[in-house]
Amino acid sequence: MIIAIWGSKGAGKTTIAVNIADLLSKDKRVAIMSACLLSPTISLFFSDVVKKHSIFRALRDPSQTGINHSYSDNKKLSIYDMSLKEHSIMSSHITDEQVANLIDYVNDKHQILIIDCESNYNHVITRQALIRADEVYFLVKPELESLAFYCSNIMLMSKLKINEKASYILNMSSKKISSKIIEQQLGINFAHQIKENKLLKLHALRGITTSKRSNRKFFKTAKKIAQEIK
Question: How confident is the model at residue 75 (pLDDT cuts 50, 70, 90)?
Answer without folding.
Answer: low
